[in-house]
Here is the input.
Amino acid sequence: MKRMFFQNLEHAACNHTLPLTTLIDELAFNEQGLVPVIAQDADSSEVLMLAWMNKVSLEQTLATGRMTYWSRSRHELWIKGATSGNYQQLQSLRVDCDGDALLCRVIQQGAACHTMRKSCFYIEANPANYSAVIISSA
Amino acid sequence: MKRMFFQNLEHAACNHTLPLTTLIDELAFNEQGLVPVIAQDADSSEVLMLAWMNKVSLEQTLATGRMTYWSRSRHELWIKGATSGNYQQLQSLRVDCDGDALLCRVIQQGAACHTMRKSCFYIEANPANYSAVIISSA
Here is the structure.
């Protein structure tokens, strides 16, 4: 997965800048043209969901400030909240050291999860007693 | 991506429990047998990295309490910190509503990133001026 572009950036000093288009062009989209995107609540730092973007949805997210994913089930651009009203306003977008994952801090309107829970991560493992538990109500 | 097992869980009440082995068996591993895993610092809630687990690495993580990923570049189990000493102790592991992503809160020894930065997400987009910036030093 290692790419020369990101290996070179490892040694860049803090505050080193580069063109955004270059960064986007160098991202390691997978064989379906997608990267995983973590959406984190900008206020509480709670992790809300993991979804996927292709290059077009990433560019649209940056241009509009509204989180826009690629729906792998519907095979279309997915403006988060377009049907539910639960939009996500982009606050910051970061790329990881391998250029194959994104972290977005967002201002979440209402619930992130389609079940109306705040976060999609509502099933917690309890390995001590070989169980799992639902940790929030729909 | 929707799976009946997780659709049924959507309506489960808070504190509903289920066998951990059932949950693991129902996870939506991708065509490579992997799920993306978000590692979040248990103290600061900072998102540290995104990596991947297969079923064996997930079971090993739960059994040992040490974050154990699948290295996609080396094609082997990867006990995080086994070479660097920067282990991640599992505090909690959650599954999302579609069963295709994991969120782990961890106690991070030292840096999560191989560049010795605390987090792997150290390149930030600045769409207002079409640039990106390195936000922490190696």
